Amino acid sequence: MKTLIVYCSSHGTTEKAVSVLCVNIEGEVLAVDLKRDKILFDLDDYDGVIIGGSIHAGEIQRKIKQFIKQHHDELLEKVVGLFLCCIRDGDIAVEQFNHAFPQDLRKNSVAMGLFGGEFIVSKMNFFERQVVKKVDSVIKDESHLNLNAIMEFALRYNNIRTPV
């Protein structure tokens, strides 16, 4: 099965998660950071699509939203996995996930994951550092990336066969 992973990574956390997925997803995998990469691809060339991003100020990246809107109907015909990197957990993380991805796409997904998150203060701009300090009392880098969740996601995704 050929899988396309599209994602956006603001400070590197989502990119780390995608690196783990690339090693653990079976078959041919192409990973594209929609913010940085200038790789052209055709969704018709892929059996599956994994979409992921991170939460900043309560929202997933705009480029992820645009990708989903542009390819919505095509995505409903694919094997789809959805993941989110966010520092929150529990009900708040679930709410952020549900807000990030449309309901029909979530229902159609074979794998969904909340991968935890990181505060990479060293890569934040002044404004971001001030917000993180005020809201979360964080002044240095912190990682809560959940490798077990990433591996469980990969296992669920790999257990699906190519649609006929």
From TrEMBL:
Sample GO molecular function, one term: menaquinone-dependent protoporphyrinogen oxidase activity
Transmembrane stretches in the record are none
Q: Which SUPFAM superfamilies match?
A: Flavoproteins
Q: So which domain of life are we looking at?
A: Bacteria
Listed under GO biological process in this entry are: heme biosynthetic process
Indicate the segments forming the Flavodoxin domain, all copies: 4-143
PANTHER family in UniProt:
PROTOPORPHYRINOGEN IX DEHYDROGENASE [MENAQUINONE], PROTOPORPHYRINOGEN IX DEHYDROGENASE [QUINONE]
The name under which this protein is listed is: Flavodoxin domain-containing protein
